[in-house]
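[step 3/7] fold_predict: job queued, chain A
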Amino acid sequence: MWRRLRVSLPASIATHSREQTLYIGRDGLIRRHDYEVEIQGNNATTRYLLGPVNVEGILLPSGFRVYPR
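[step 4/7] structure written:
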């Protein structure tokens, strides 16, 4: 089961889109990231973060897959 967190970022932050949705697993890691690529005509995109690895005490994804939504 994943929990969903919808975020709104200020225009001063350079990012894919101001509105984004993160899906967080029971382990506290981000598993999925939904956003729209605003500079490409608001293409709806889903990115799955895969294979977490420990890098000096910080868990980071070792890969990801991107799909159109």
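[step 5/7] annotate
The two ends are 20 Å apart (CA to CA).
The longest strand covers residues 43-55.
exit 0
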